[in-house]
Amino acid sequence: QVQLVESGGGLVQAGGSLRLSCAASGRTFSSYAMGWFRQAPGKEREFLAVISWGGGSTYYADSVKGRFTISRDNAKNTVYLQMNSLKPEDTAVYYCAADRHVYQSGGRNVDDFGSWGQGTQVTVSS
After folding, report:
1. How does pLDDT run across 8-35, given as a tens digit for each residue?
2. What DSSP string describes 55-96?
3. Residues in the chain, pLDDT under 50
4. Kind and range of the H or E element at 38?
5. In the prediction, which pLDDT does 102 show?
6. Which residues have a Cβ under 8 Å from the Cβ of 41 and sit 6 or more positions away?
7. Is-contact 25 76, C-beta < 8 A?
């Protein structure tokens, strides 16, 4: 089991930027695709971005494409989410997650991921 801890959330004005980090421990981090999701109050958990185990492939939800960038540093066991041009509708709890299986390009659904962090709150004010 891999343990994940997110950080970097906070309060930012619309148009601003934040960088979220997700530090991993436990299983071999570099073998797993990693994803970012978010969940706003009263809404389902929403897929945002995924990066393959080697970092060579990424995929984004349309809602964040061109504004958010996922990256990973396997030497530091960390995955990042750079968020630019933030909007009030980006307000949510943000979660990182590790794929259930090794050596995958990465899924898009909650059920594709087997380990989750505790989440970090991002609030964007208008």
Report:
1. 999 999 999 999 999 999 768 999 999 9
2. SS-EEE-TTTTTTEEEEEETTTTEEEEEE-S--GGG-EEEEE
3. none
4. strand 32-39
5. 87
6. none
7. no
Dig out the tokens for 115 from the structure.
Answer: 């380990």
| Cα separation values, 98 from 22, 41, 85, Å | 10, 23, 26
Strand 92-102 vs strand 113-116: parallel, antiparallel, or unpaired? Answer: antiparallel
Looking at residue 28, its pLDDT comes to 86
DSSP structure class, residue 103: S
pLDDT value of position 27: 65
Q: First-to-last CA distance in the chain?
A: 39
Place of tokens 């930012």: 12
Specify the 3-state DSSP secondary structure of 34: strand
